[in-house]
Structure formats: structure tokens, C-alpha cells
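Collaborator request, handled under Task 6.
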Amino acid sequence: MKNHSLSCSVLGACLAVNSAAFAATTVVYDFQSETRYDVFSNAVVGWSQNKANPFDVDGNPAPYAYLDLTGFSGGATKTGQLGSFVANTPDKSTVTVSGVLDFTGVDLAAPQATMNLAILDPVADDAGFPTRDSFDVSLANTGGASLAGISFTPNAGDSLKWDLGFSVNGASATTIGIAVPSVLRNSGYQFRVDFDDDNTRFYYGAAVTGANVFIGFGPAVATGGMASIEMTHTPNAAAAAGTSSNMLAFDNIVVSIPEPSSLLLGLLGSSFLLRRRRA
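C-alpha cells returned to the collaborator:
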């Protein structure tokens, strides 16, 4: 049977339905069809922002989140960027941008999510911007509750690193163990979250090699329907305005859910092969 699939460079959210033996409904955000410097408050299709953008000292908009170029795996491509590259504002606002994951009417059995993430923090800015901020990524349900999350917290002893954490069902983030304690700034990583009826598993790796290192697991999620992916920037509350300059870059977000019919076809196929062997 020939596989049929819809492949697209996403303008916002694109649903690709593959009618194959192991078909999947997939939502992809790769931002390549968008325009550089588009802002997440109103210009990136499929995304929203929970707080209005401030203005700089000259009265110009200073967006919390926008599209710019990041070199995750060699060449620079358009990515989402959230944070304070132009220095944190006086109100030290926590800001979240959310991308829609529309799986209306789809059984959420065993979904998988992958994404490229990086903390951008220019080395040249250290003297003028010594403060570092925290970031969180969350896959949320239809009620806005976090199903699975990845956190980035500044390492207390090394200004080049952010400590990793993960959480399931909105619980407090669990810090990753000694094997993978942190990620380096200005380095691209791929993360993967696997969901099934037994547990939720987290993986990561360099963006060029993929998420092949197991970093932790938690219980199965209480879905309530997977509805969005959320990126949150939390400035250091004790820092003076204008002292931090770091951002979360995100790209190549792929959330895939097997269709119930494809799972059934797989079981029927296995049963057929077993009967043939016995015969």
C-alpha cells in the first residue's frame, strides 16, 4: 500500500494526516513560511501572547517574543525567540506565548512531541547584562493545565549553563540527575517527550544528532485533551531593569498522535502474520 502524506513548511499550524498502516495526525511549527521579525502577540499564525508588548525609551514597541534567525544545526533558519535580548523591562513581566495544537476529535493515545530549543545569551554582553533568567516549555491540556514540562534554570555555579528539569501533570519540576545536569548557552538541543498509558518519558540530545539520551520519566499524564504548547520567560525578580539579556529560541516543533485506526491495523496485521506462521 502506498503511503500518502501532506508535507508542508508551516505557516502557523499545519495538520498532516498520513493514510498509511501507521498513520499519524501531526501538528508542525517550523516558522519558515513566516516573516522575520513577526511578533507573537499578533502576527505569527496559530500563536498568542498573554501580555501586551512594552515600549522602549524612544516609544517604539519592544516585543517580548518574535521571529529571528538561529543556527540550530549549521545554517541559520527562522525560529521563535522569547525573552529579553533588548534587556529586561522594569516590570520584570513573566510572559508566555502559546501555539495551538488542534487535535479535535482525535484519540490522544501515545502521542510524541519533539522540538529544538536553545538558550541564547551573548558572551559579549556579560559585563553589561550579568543577570540570567529562567524558561519553561509546557505541553498543556484543553483547560490550560500542564501535562508535561521542561524547565531551564540558571546554574548557580557556572554562568555558561542552565540546569534542566522536567515535570508531569503540573507537579514541581524535578531536576535532572548527574548524567545530564545542564545545557550550555548558545547551543542547540532537540528534546523529545513520549507519552503512553504507563509513563511519560523525556529525552534530549544535540540538535544535529537528535533526542537520543534518556533524561527522566514520570507518571502517565491525565490528558483532558492536548491543546497547546507554551513557552514561558520568567525574569530574575531581584534583578534591576536592563541587566539581563537572554532568550529561549524554539523551532521544529512536531507533535504527533497515532490514529486509532492505524493502531488497530497494526494489531490486525500482527494477528494475521501470527496465524500464517502457525499455519
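The cover message to the collaborator said: "The CA atoms of residues 53 and 63 lie 5 Å apart. The chain has a mean pLDDT of 78. Please let us know whether this matches your experimental observations."
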